[in-house]
Amino acid sequence: MAARVGFDKWMFCTTLLLVVVGLAMVFSASAVVAEAKYHSEFTDLGRQAGWALAGVACMLVLMRIPYETYNSQRFIYPALSITTLLLLLVFFIPGSHNTHRWVRFGGHFTFQPSEIAKLVLVLFLAWFLSTRLDAMRDWKHTLLRAVVMPVVLILLIVRQPDLGTAMVLAGVTAMMLILAGMEWKYLLVGVFAALPGLAWLLLMVPWRRQRVLTFLHPDLDPMGAGFHINQSLIAVGAGGFSGRGYMEGMQKLFYLPEAATDFIFANIAEELGFLGAIFILLLFAFFGVRGLRTAFRSQDPFARLVAFGITTSILLQAFFNISVVLSLVPTKGIPLPLISSGGTSIFFTLASIGILLNISRKVD
Q1: Alpha helices of the chain — where are they, by DSSP H?
Q2: Domain ranges in the chain?
Q3: pTM above 0.85, yes or no
């Protein structure tokens, strides 16, 4: 198959458009709160723009580094070791809101190791599985060994606690194993094996049980446990077909919690309406089409698995975030890729896309 003259420009432009839209919506959602908290409406925007510029620069660099660089023990083992150590390190750092998700340097610089784990997990599975495609029925020497590291990363992230990101990692792991040729019966075995643990996390942990009950009956405690999702649905409904107008949203004015992060899609729906929400969905759908096109047209098994893993991880995260906003799944804290405020998220998402764009150079 002939090599592409350049990278996938459609994917590149879609990515930049998502970033620009994200910066605009972060400013809209955060300006009033930032003015009250920091005495400058541009504080959150400036922070997010800095991370976005760093992420775009990283993406441009990784676009030019051959993806084969990552298909090596010399890269995979150190990457796994560093990621695991960082996920352990968060437990020795004072948490925030009863969670331990961030590594902090000084009072201003923080990042989430779980964002690194998404990319490292994809690269590890692609490296491990790409040379074992003919042994995917060997559950002992291939499948069991393949899932040990993902399970370790997932358990550490669950412990933070961050069940949303852990579910994204679990979903990506399952889909990459299926793409590599794993039989569906093994997936079913894995699902049934995980169900007791998932049920315990959802039903035996009090605040998660409350979220499930709120999801089933959001109107029972609208000013308490159901406040988040009710305010989100009010924002989405208030937007109507064409929205209130950019910067004209009402729910972000100290009603909708996390309006610039986990619930930014609700602010988009309120200000830009159904049309704006569909536009965002179409951008993610188009990105997914281009990413999967790159994956399935690649002749290199490693590249195919990496492209597939990166694309599905971004789409899965977007699916979970939007589903939470629309009350299709219980509330969980997970950002909307490239849109939500969050420096580590946008930086490592753009870094991942840089690798994906490099792979796109090798397909026609």
Answers
A1: 9-38, 43-62, 73-89, 113-130, 144-159, 163-180, 184-203, 206-216, 227-239, 264-297, 301-325, 343-360
A2: 9-360
A3: yes
Are 259 and 232 a contacting pair, CB within 8 Å? Answer: no
| 87 contact partners, CB below 8 Å, separation of at least 6 | 113, 114, 117, 153, 156, 157, 160
Go through 230-246 and write b for each residue having 16 or more CB atoms within 10 A of its CB, e for each that does not.
Answer: bbbbbbbebbeeebbee
The amino acid occupying position 31 is: A
Instruction: List the chain pLDDT tens, one digit each, 364 residues.
Output: 445 558 999 999 999 999 999 999 999 999 988 888 888 899 899 999 999 999 999 999 999 999 999 999 999 999 999 999 999 998 887 766 667 777 776 666 778 899 999 999 999 999 999 999 998 988 888 999 999 999 999 999 999 888 999 999 999 999 999 999 999 999 999 999 999 999 998 888 888 888 888 888 877 777 777 788 889 999 999 999 999 999 999 998 888 888 899 999 999 999 999 999 999 999 999 999 999 999 999 999 999 999 999 999 999 999 999 999 999 988 888 999 999 998 899 999 999 999 999 999 988 6
Place of tokens 């399952």: 174
Whether the upstream peptide bond of residue 161 has omega within 30° of 0, thus cis, is yes
Cα separation, 290 vs 257, in Å, equals 34
Q: With the C-alpha atoms ordered 241, 246, 248, 251, is the resulting torsion angle positive or negative?
A: positive
Count of CB atoms situated within 10 Å of the CB of 168: 28
Question: In terms of Cα–Cα distance, which of 150, 155, 172, 171 is closest to 91?
Answer: 155
Query: Over the range 19-33, which residues count as b (16 or more CB within 10 Å of their CB) and which as e?
Result: bebbbebbbbbbbbb
Read off the tokens for 217.
């009956």
Beta bridge partners of 110: 104
